[in-house]
């Protein structure tokens, strides 16, 4: 099951969907038969210019252009409450006012509708050194009617941004390479000034681990800002986590609400401790625990198995004419279907696809060289 299938698993193509900010990478593209209405900050023509260096063929026709205020206001009022799902992949963290964003989702979906979010996990991306956002942050932004990111947001975003070797801005939770801060303190005036620009300057305003997102939704609902509940949260191996929300907040009060809050607060501490496993000198590093060594050994076995599968696919799809690319590709796809989508075994899936891509790219290079030589 790929990423899109996982996120959209409960939906059929006759469902009425609204996808926010898909730009050049929609999850439920119209061209694949989805009944999707697109909301973006610009028209398709403008997006084609903005993302000219990307795969522009994937940019969808934009149905509703949103350029400020509530996203719900970009959609005609007679369509409020008519959508089976509200979809946003890596959008929520950029919003200036997360309460208004979630209220818009709540407004647009049917009573039994679904809010589907893909959210960066700070443990697995360039927000690595930042602290999770709090409900207090969300409430403050809402009451300020914030439409631009503050100087504090720009400074926190820039001065704590980190990359791993190879300029990787996102990675696996098992990646033991060092995360290195990108911007030095000498850049502070420039980032602070971003808040005073006459136009919107982008930043990650909201930072989460899975439990901190759940806590924020629970607390905002308990305080009367939302009527949503988190139905499920699921981690991805790399970069992000997924959240599915429904209308109707959890009817918790008094000690029951406090117990749920404390449980999530405890979980946040645990998830942040899990993040420290990526630091080699940490007492919780996989290098310092028997459990961690077992995980690494299991992953090594899965990598070996994946490499064997790739080699078998090469042998089965190679004849005296050379590599049959289509057959090789089909064998890799078939092999990857048998690999679990989560857990250490997922390593095999990534190795299979990575090695297959390398093999196909290498073959393409050989063919290019042979073609050039024949034309001389």
Question: What would you say about this model in short?
Answer:
This protein has 376 residues and is of the alpha/beta class. It has helices spanning 3-7, 44-50, 98-108, 135-143, 151-159, 188-193, 210-222, 254-275, 290-316, 325-336, 346-375, and strands at 16-20, 35-40, 64-65, 83-89, 109-120, 162-163, 180-181, 228-235, 240-247, 318-319, 322-323. It folds into two domains: 3-278, 3-Layer(aba) Sandwich (Rossmann fold); 289-375, no CATH class.
Describe the protein in words.
The chain has 376 residues and is of the alpha/beta class. It has two domains: 3-278, 3-Layer(aba) Sandwich (Rossmann fold); 289-375, no CATH class. The protein is 40% helix and 15% strand. It has eleven helices and eleven strands. The protein has helices at 3-7, 44-50, 98-108, 135-143, 151-159, 188-193, 210-222, 254-275, 290-316, 325-336, 346-375, and strands at residues 16-20, 35-40, 64-65, 83-89, 109-120, 162-163, 180-181, 228-235, 240-247, 318-319, 322-323. The strands form three sheets. Strands 3-2-1-4-5-9-8 form a seven-stranded mixed sheet. Strands 6-7 form a two-stranded antiparallel sheet. Helix 2 links the parallel strand 2 and strand 3. Helix 10 runs antiparallel to helix 11. The chain is globular and about 70 Å long.
